[in-house]
Structure formats: structure tokens, C-alpha cells
Amino acid sequence: MLANPSKEFEALFPWEELGGFYIISYGLGIYILNLLIGFLSPKIDPELEAMDGASLPTKESDEFKPFIRRLPEFKFWYAITKAFLVAFVLTFFSVFDVPVFWPILLFYWLVLFVLTMKRQIMHMIKYKYIPFDLGKQKLLHRAETEEEEQEDEAMAVFVVIRTSML
Q1: How many Cβ atoms are within 10 Å of 42's Cβ, its own excluded?
Q2: How many C-beta atoms surround the C-beta of residue 156 within 10 A?
Q3: Of 134, 138, 131, which is closest to residue 66 (Cα–Cα)?
Q4: Which residues of 106-145 are buried (b: 16+ CB within 10 A; e: fewer)?
Q5: What are the 10-residue block averages of pLDDT along the chain, 166 residues in total?
Q6: Which residues pair with 42 in a beta bridge?
Q7: The 3-state secondary structure of 26-58, one letter per residue
Q8: Is the dihedral of CA 32, 33, 39, 43 positive or negative?
Q9: Which of 156, 17, 143 is nearest to 91 (CA)?
Q10: Half-sphere exposure of 12 toward its Cβ, with a 13 Å CA cutoff?
Q11: CA distance 155 to 158
Q12: CA separation for the pair 100, 21 (Å, rounded)
């Protein structure tokens, strides 16, 4: 059990304890947003490759092509780890503690996040791809009652009689 979770948080993000380094935090946030876009994007963009004939399937009859990320998961986490380490090291230098009004940076970052995620989600909807594995697809079929089975048998008999008359 963690004795004091806020102390562990402060150890991970020293600029919170120091009360500054907002430029470093902002730069780290922008970089992680950029990595996230690469992680959620397909390696072959359907908008750019539509002219070549290679595209994601848009109909059920199209050939299945697996989703391949532009930025693989391992490289995504590796880049985030490096970014946090660089940001941590930069907090040791006072030259990066630039006085800024942090609410403006936070608001601007939130606007960027919302706009880029909206664009990315619209792209996913347009080209019908999901970058996450939702597990094994299960077929949903209803339990047939005896009446439904009898109706199916009666219909089959009708079809057989009808085709034999022709």
C-alpha cells in the first residue's frame, strides 16, 4: 500500500512540487499528444492511398486488412518514457523555469487535444477502422422456440412442393 500517494505523484512530476516548469510540462503534453496521434493512426492512410487502390475495407465484401499502426505500441511507450526522463532532467536547470501564466497553456493544450482527437475520430468513422482490439467477436442469435422451428419446417415443405410443381 502507498503511504502517501501525493508524495509518489510529486516524485514522478517534480515541477508540481517546485511550482514551475510549466513550459516543460506543456512541451511534454504536446509531444505525448503527437505520439498518441501516431499510435491511433493507420500506417497506410486511406485518404492518401485511395488513388493507388490500396485502402481499408469499407464494405463487408471487401478483403480484410489488419490494422497496422503508424507508431507501434512498444515504440510509443519507449518514446513516452524517454520524454518523461528528458523532462525530469530539464527540471534540474533553472533556465527552463520560465514564468508563464499556466492556465493559458492548459486551456490551449485542451483546445488542441479536443480538436485533434475530433479530427482523428472523424477519420476513424469515415474509414471504419478501430485501432483497439475489442476481443473476439461473438455472434448473437436468438434461441428458437418450437413454434419457430415448426414454421421453418412448414416453409421448407411449401418450397419443396412449389418447386416440384414447376
Answers
A1: 19
A2: 10
A3: 131
A4: eeeeeeeeeeeeeeeeebeeebebeeeeeeeeeeeeeeee
A5: 59 59 89 91 73 57 68 94 94 86 89 90 80 63 55 58 54
A6: 69
A7: HHHHHHHHHHHHHHHCECCCHHHHCCCCCCCCC
A8: negative
A9: 17
A10: 7
A11: 5
A12: 9
Beta-carbon contacts of residue 29 (< 8 Å; ≥ 6 apart) = 109
Give the pLDDT confidence score for residue 128 in this predicted structure. Answer: 76
Q: Please give the C-alpha separations between residue 55 and each of 63, 127, 132, 145, in angstroms, as whole numbers.
A: 10, 9, 19, 43
Q: Classify residue 155 by burial, with Cβ atoms within 10 Å: 0-12, 13-18, 19+.
A: exposed
C-alpha distances out from residue 72 to 23, 34, 36, 117, 119, Å: 28, 14, 11, 19, 21
Residues in the chain: 166
Question: pLDDT at position 143, please?
Answer: 47
Contact 136, 130 (CB under 8 A): no
What is the predicted pLDDT for the residue at 111? 93
The residue whose grid cell reads 503527437 is 34
Whether the model pTM is above 0.85:
no
